[in-house]
Amino acid sequence: MNTVNPTRELAAFLRTRRERLHPGDMALPARRAPRRTPGLRREEVAELAGVSVDYVIRLEQGRGLRPSPEVLEALAGALRLSEDERAYLFDLAGQRPARQPTARRAPAADEAGPLARLVADLSPLPAMLLNHRFDIIAWNPEMAGLMLDFGALPPEQRNSMWLCVLHPGLGTFYRDRERVIREGIADLRAAWAAHPDDTALSELIDGLTSGSEEVARLWALRDVKVNARGRKRLLHATQGPLTVDYEVLAPLHSPDQRLVVYRAADPASQRVLDAVARACAAPVPRGAAGAESALTPR
């Protein structure tokens, strides 16, 4: 099982972040000795972070050190980590940044609760509610009409990453499929570090990496990025191509859940979404497959 070993992952993460940096972009004195490996040297990271070279070596070799928040902040600055990568670094080290806001008591990640009603109220905009594993726990008819009938799937397949990577019916749905998968894996890695004891999440990652060489390659890159908004180019099965802008909202009372909303990016795409909405509003013949309400929380 692909469970988190924080010490080994911290070591590997620091190495990959060091190796991606270009020495010419850093405020370092010129060195004449040729470089045998990509990126910064360990002594250069140590100099930038204000720690000893031996300390950096021991961190990268996974010798069980637990850096303080101050050292983590210094390393994040030296390695030019993004905000998402910085949060990932702190999660791996089992530390929290200074002035971390107090978390409110949240409902279980698998419970849609009142947010299921909000998902319904967002119609005709396609919307769905995900937990930190990317499980789809509530959706409206427009989102199901745009993608597929989530209610007809086994519960273990109602996962946006699984559907994107492994569901045969969605192989051509994402016209920028490689980018969507890459961004999704970077987002999933952040969730993996924040929930190291979540065996269901670890099993999902195992299934994705063993079932797809592409996912296994992208997972090994250790990219970390939480996606709050963006644009996706899609191909609907009957209505044709469209482009949507998406927003990802995290409720304050349930930060492990994400409300995802799609909006048309151009007039042609709006016509496609309007056609999908009209199809969803049409009466469903009694006994038809997939007639189960898509608004029911899972």
Polypeptide structure, described:
This protein is of the alpha+beta class. It has two domains: 6-93, Orthogonal Bundle (434 Repressor (Amino-terminal Domain)), CATH 1.10.260.40; 115-281, Beta-Lactamase (2-Layer Sandwich). The protein has twelve helices and five strands. The protein has a five-stranded antiparallel sheet with strand order 2-1-5-4-3. Helix 2 (42-49) crosses helix 3 (53-60). Mean pLDDT is 86; it is low at 101-108 and 285-298. This is Helix-turn-helix domain-containing protein. GO terms for molecular function: DNA binding. Residues 39-86 form the HTH cro/C1-type domain.
Give keywords.
Helix-turn-helix domain-containing protein; 11% strand; Beta-Lactamase; 434 Repressor (Amino-terminal Domain); disordered C terminus; 12 helices; 298 residues; single chain; alpha+beta
Strand-helix topology:
Layout: H1 6-19, H2 42-49, H3 53-60, H4 69-78, H5 83-93, H6 115-121, E1 127-130, E2 136-139, H7 141-146, H8 160-166, H9 177-194, H10 199-211, H11 213-220, E3 229-236, E4 240-249, E5 258-264, H12 267-281
Antiparallel strand pairs: 1-2, 1-5, 3-4, 4-5
CATH-defined topology of the largest domain:
Beta-Lactamase
Identify the CATH class of the largest domain.
Alpha Beta
- CATH architecture annotation name of the largest domain: 2-Layer Sandwich
Order of helices and strands: HHHHHHEEHHHHHEEEH
Give the termini separation. Answer: 25 Å
Indicate the low-confidence ranges by residue numbers: 101-108, 285-298
Q: Output the structural class.
A: alpha+beta
Count of separate structural domains: 2
Shape, please? elongated
Radius of gyration: 22 Å
- The number of distinct helices, counting runs of at least 4 residues, comes to 12
In the sheet with the most strands, the strands line up as 2-1-5-4-3
Beta fraction = 5-15%
InterPro entries: Cro/C1-type_HTH (IPR001387), Lambda_DNA-bd_dom_sf (IPR010982), MLTR_LBD (IPR041413)
GO molecular function: DNA binding
Protein name: Helix-turn-helix domain-containing protein
